[in-house]
Amino acid sequence: MMKKLSMIVCALSFLLLGSGFNQAPQLTNAEEGKQQENPHRHFMNEADFQRLIDQGYTKKEILKAAHIAKFADKKIDDVLKTYKESDSSWEKTAAHYGLDMEKLKKQCHEQKEKFLEEHKEDVIENVAEYTGKTETQIKSWVNEGIPLRFIVGGAAMAKASGKDMEELIKMKKNGQSFQDIKKSLHLDKGKLHEEMKVLMGKIKEDMKN
Q: Model pTM?
């Protein structure tokens, strides 16, 4: 159960914050607003989430705290309190509970990849349509060892920068990380986030159908 919950947290971290996975065309404005307001609705009730927001915590802080809380088997409130007492350092917070933040990040990345792998066909189909590439081309990158997580993020990054997706894949093959490539392209964070919202919204729709 703990492993399943941590996977949900990691997936939400990627889809809701990292990728803006919080939009769905069939939602009413009110429903969409509520969904954006509480990205933790799958494992935290609305009242608790709003209570933490009212206390001054950001969505990102709540999500990171939820991540640590699941692995440490602690309450999110306790983790957030420790976070503030630890000079707002997630590394110190994780260490306080006997956790290694780098290992947690690695586990989370692996779980994000597993989540996307479970919806591989939907991901490839939508990335192909979004980038103007063929599904065969996208599959060839996957077969060459390019993670689906990078392909999704890279597709949005290519769109936001006006670059061809193939250029970013070459950079990845040359050993550059997602963050390295993003910095080299001098991308506007807001623009990248918007593109991720568009792409992940499409993928989400296919997952539901």
A: 0.62
